[in-house]
């Protein structure tokens, strides 16, 4: 049995770890609430853009636009969104794993990583990283707009034939699901079946509208993915830190029990030695 | 007087929903000039320029500074999708003034490294915000 002093030292070290995990959990919970609010606030816009694009798209069928052009996929790019930091259970690993699976379909694909964890992983494995961005915690719209501009330019120049976005969707605090979304060529969402085709007046004309709505759609998809990642990251971190705190409590309980047993054994031994010593003197 | 017809106006940005209410009349800063929209307007999609959305409802006028984006009008529903939008009561006047000065300085500097188009767009946005609050 471990000595009393060792047990005491281990309990002390675990309880200081527990203090840290507890603090991290509290911080993650506070940040999660904010990140969650911004995801929910951003969803109406994403839905409206998709609705309008669907209706305008079906009202102007047959239109040729460089961002709608479907080509044989020769060169593919993946945008992979992870968090910058770890200590969040399998959150980043799940996205990365899905990325690895997807890239198998196009082994010479270019990667655009957003977030430090994804970058580190893919760089270490020697994937082609075309662009890398870190600093996801701020959910900065200018960052995602820069990424959008990059892929749109590459797509328009026919350097990329397809662009996919891989990120973790925030379902709820306990569930974050990694998803793959094709963002280029843009596939206008289907309008609702019961909806009649709307005969729009376009001002100035349908091309100009498409020129503004398509990039907006892509920018928004990227921005949304960053918000979802943030909310998911803090939820995952909160859950992970909660588990860590609970495990620390369990360990402290077990160690305290063995420490008490050890102490009692020591006392019993001491008493029996004294009694034995006194008996020997008689 | 007959029951007044209303239309729903929604102004949304990537970050949040700025405005959502039933209103009587709205003026949009269309790319081809200002557009007044009453309920039961024909379906319309218009690009927007940096400018003011003016909402008239029960005799009050509310100004919303918007930049970049477009508007869809359909079934007495006006949806404004903008990169940025602020109601007049949300605008930070100090910030807008600072942005205006910064943009003016950049334009006056005639430095070849400065992107004039961007500086001009920034100046336009700042002036637009100030106009919404009646400061310029």
Automatic annotation (TrEMBL), chain A:
Q: Where in the cell is it found?
A: Cell membrane; Membrane
Q: Which UniProt keywords apply?
A: ATP synthesis, Cell membrane, CF(1), Hydrogen ion transport, Ion transport, Membrane, Transport
* Gene3D superfamilies tied to this protein: 3.40.1380.10, ATP synthase, gamma subunit, helix hairpin domain
Q: How does it sit in the membrane?
A: Peripheral membrane protein
GO CC annotations, alphabetized: plasma membrane; proton-transporting ATP synthase complex
Major place of residence: membrane
**Domain of life of the organism in this record?**
Bacteria
- Membrane as a keyword of this entry, yes or no, is yes
What Gene Ontology terms describe what this protein does at the molecular function level?
ATP binding; proton-transporting ATP synthase activity, rotational mechanism
List the CDD domains: F1-ATPase_gamma
Which terms does the UniProt entry file under GO BP?
proton motive force-driven plasma membrane ATP synthesis
Subunit architecture: F-type ATPases have 2 components, CF(1) - the catalytic core - and CF(0) - the membrane proton channel. CF(1) has five subunits: alpha(3), beta(3), gamma(1), delta(1), epsilon(1). CF(0) has three main subunits: a, b and c.
Family per similarity comment: Belongs to the ATPase gamma chain family.
* Function summary: Produces ATP from ADP in the presence of a proton gradient across the membrane. The gamma chain is believed to be important in regulating ATPase activity and the flow of protons through the CF(0) complex.
Q: What is this protein called?
A: ATP synthase gamma chain
Automatic annotation (TrEMBL), chain B:
- Which ranges carry the ATP synthase epsilon subunit C-terminal domain? 89-133
Q: MF terms per GO, please?
A: ATP binding; proton-transporting ATP synthase activity, rotational mechanism
Q: Which controlled-vocabulary keywords does the entry list? A: ATP synthesis, Cell membrane, CF(1), Hydrogen ion transport, Ion transport, Membrane, Transport
Write down the CDD domains for this protein, in alphabetical order.
F1-ATPase_delta
Q: Which GO terms describe its cellular component?
A: plasma membrane; proton-transporting ATP synthase complex
Residues making up the signal peptide according to the UniProt record: none
Ranges for domain ATP synthase F1 complex delta/epsilon subunit N-terminal? 8-85
In terms of SUPFAM superfamilies, this protein maps to: Epsilon subunit of F1F0-ATP synthase C-terminal domain (SSF46604), Epsilon subunit of F1F0-ATP synthase N-terminal domain (SSF51344)
Which compartments does it reside in? Cell membrane
Q: Does the keyword Cell membrane apply?
A: yes
Membrane topology of this protein: Peripheral membrane protein
Q: Which top-rank group of organisms is this from? A: Bacteria
User: What's the family?
Assistant: Belongs to the ATPase epsilon chain family.
This protein's assembly is summarised as:
F-type ATPases have 2 components, CF(1) - the catalytic core - and CF(0) - the membrane proton channel. CF(1) has five subunits: alpha(3), beta(3), gamma(1), delta(1), epsilon(1). CF(0) has three main subunits: a, b and c.
Q: Which PANTHER family match?
A: ATP SYNTHASE DELTA/EPSILON CHAIN (PTHR13822), ATP SYNTHASE EPSILON CHAIN, CHLOROPLASTIC (PTHR13822:SF10)
Q: Which NCBIfam families match?
A: ATP_synt_epsi (TIGR01216), PRK00571.1-3 (NF001846), PRK13446.1 (NF009980)
- Cited function: Produces ATP from ADP in the presence of a proton gradient across the membrane.
* Name of the molecule in the record: ATP synthase epsilon chain
Gene behind the chain? atpC
